[in-house]
Design a protein that fits this description.
The chain is an alpha+beta fold and about 160 residues long. It is about 25% helix and about 10% strand. β3 and β4 form a beta hairpin. The longest helix has 14 residues.
């Protein structure tokens, strides 16, 4: 699949904003029992998020604001995303496609994403290329009304 992000998402100011706000939103990720002598076995892991408003949806393709898009990243991960310095980093992908690794065709018109092996859904089912295709079909269907459709408009066709 060819992923062509809008210029706004590639801008340094956007990346700095996203990189700067995420640590503030996820400032208190940890165990309330740390430092009080409780054993490692009895620790509970707690994620605390501070946001100005509660998210209304956890589907990034239907999110209408930052609070929803950011909160959805806790439950859903992309094939790849940008790091703090603006570099693509694989999440569900095994590697970032490039001409050098054969993931991007020499003419630049096709991209092959290789998925990380052994990734499982919360129900224990394996994550697969069919899941990626399902997501693409879901968000590119006009009936869905996905807010992220424009991100994927550059994809002319796909195949497994």
């Amino acid at each position: 699949m060819l992923l062509n992000l809008p210029a706004a998402f590639k801008s340094r100011s956007y990346q700095k904003l996203m990189g700067g706000l995420l640590p503030l939103l996820l400032f208190a990720c940890g165990d309330p029992n740390v430092g009080n002598g409780s054993s490692q076995q009895n620790r509970q892991e707690t994620l605390k998020i501070l946001s100005w408003q509660a998210p209304t949806i956890l589907n990034p393709h239907l999110a209408t604001g930052f609070k929803d898009a950011e909160a959805s990243r806790i439950a859903l991960e992309p094939l790849a995303s940008f790091d703090y310095e603006g570099n693509l980093v694989p999440f569900l992908a095994a590697e970032i496609p490039s001409v050098e690794n054969g993931g991007v065709a020499a003419d630049g018109l096709s991209v092959t994403w290789k998925l990380k092996p052994d990734v499982l859904w919360s129900d224990g089912q394996p994550f697969s290329a069919e899941d990626v295709v399902f997501t693409y079909k879901f968000l590119s269907d006009p009936k869905t009304g996905a807010t992220s459709t424009g991100t994927y408009e550059a994809i002319a066709r796909w195949k497994l």
